[in-house]
Write the C-alpha cells for this entry.
Amino acid sequence: MIKSECDICMNYAYDEEYECMMCTVDMDEDEMCSFMEHRRRSCPYFRMGDDYTVVKKQI
C-alpha cells in the first residue's frame, strides 16, 4: 500500500476528541482551500517523521 505524504508527516496526528487522524497545522481558510483543491504540488508544511519521532512528540 502506498502511503500519502500526510501518513509520514510529523504534523499528522491522532485527535482524541474527534477520534481520527488530523493535520495539526493551523491553516487559515485560504490556505485550506488551496490545499484541498490540490493547487499545490505538495504540502508546504510537510515535515518528515517516522514512528520513533512521532512517539517522542506525543510523550
Notes: The radius of gyration is 12 Å. The chain has a mean pLDDT of 78.
